[in-house]
């Protein structure tokens, strides 16, 4: 039933959380399940695209002949995997919840609970979308924005800063939107700041809307 309108298009998609090690047993992570990104990967593949899906730790799997899945742990690994193929892709979709910071020092052994308090110093991770967005050639780049306040304004700032063509805003204030859930409620904002708010849908349906935006770009 799916169209093959993305045939010969190569699409790079990020999904899931990243895990930033503190010591051999602990990490800094977040609540992303990977579902949003995996659903986009499947929708793109079913429309004929050749998909590279770079995912942080997720319990999900995907089986489609058009999808190559690369599993990573950290933001730096996700960045390296994306950077190494970026020049060869037509589209980048950033659905991953990438940690903005990582522990500056990773303890070699499990940290003992002797001290009453201690500080973990963090250093900044590379911003995958901003780095690739600011060196893009013909690529069409779709970012996500996960916000809790001043959602539209923050999303617009991300479009500019990361040189995106389209951003998919989801707000943790909206019931049924965001992490883990089978549904999402998104607002599309184009690089011209055209705004389109969608109703609550399944993540499969949101994924199909996103893929249709990509199809429209090439129509
Ligand atoms: O995985 P699920 O459980 O299905 O949940 C889906 C989701 C909520 C994770 C997804 O819909 C979503 O919103 N993903 C982006 C989450 C996020 O971290 O947003 P942000 O506003 O912090 O980042 C903005 C954009 O920059 C995102 O496209 C992000 O992938 C990208 N980014 C951020 C930081 C960084 N170091 N590198 C990046 O590429």
TrEMBL record:
Keywords assigned: Decarboxylase, Flavoprotein, FMN, Ligase, Lyase, Magnesium, Metal-binding, Multifunctional enzyme
The Gene Ontology terms for molecular function here are: FMN binding; metal ion binding; phosphopantothenate--cysteine ligase activity; phosphopantothenoylcysteine decarboxylase activity
Please tell me whether the keyword Protein biosynthesis is annotated for this protein. Answer: no
- Pathway, per UniProt? Cofactor biosynthesis; coenzyme A biosynthesis; CoA from (R)-pantothenate: step 2/5; Cofactor biosynthesis; coenzyme A biosynthesis; CoA from (R)-pantothenate: step 3/5
Query: GO CC annotation: what is one?
Result: phosphopantothenoylcysteine decarboxylase complex
Q: Which cofactor does it need?
A: Mg(2+); FMN
Instruction: Please give the catalytic activity noted in the UniProt record.
Output: (R)-4'-phosphopantothenate + L-cysteine + CTP = N-[(R)-4-phosphopantothenoyl]-L-cysteine + CMP + diphosphate + H(+); N-[(R)-4-phosphopantothenoyl]-L-cysteine + H(+) = (R)-4'-phosphopantetheine + CO2
Q: How is the cofactor bound?
A: Binds 1 FMN per subunit.
Magnesium is among the record's keywords: yes
List the GO biological process terms.
Answer: coenzyme A biosynthetic process; pantothenate catabolic process
Q: What is its EC number?
A: 4.1.1.36, 6.3.2.5
Q: Which residues bind CTP?
A: 100, 110, 126-129, 144, 158, 162
Q: Which domain of life is it from?
A: Bacteria
Region annotation (Phosphopantothenate--cysteine ligase) ranges: 11-219
Q: Which residues form the DNA/pantothenate metabolism flavoprotein C-terminal domain?
A: 8-216
The protein's role, per its UniProt record: Catalyzes two sequential steps in the biosynthesis of coenzyme A. In the first step cysteine is conjugated to 4'-phosphopantothenate to form 4-phosphopantothenoylcysteine. In the second step the latter compound is decarboxylated to form 4'-phosphopantotheine. Catalyzes two steps in the biosynthesis of coenzyme A. In the first step cysteine is conjugated to 4'-phosphopantothenate to form 4-phosphopantothenoylcysteine, in the latter compound is decarboxylated to form 4'-phosphopantotheine.
Q: What family is it from?
A: In the N-terminal section; belongs to the HFCD (homo-oligomeric flavin containing Cys decarboxylase) superfamily.
| Name the record gives this protein | Coenzyme A biosynthesis bifunctional protein CoaBC
Which source organism? Myroides guanonis
Q: Which residues of the full protein are shown?
A: 184 to 402 of 402
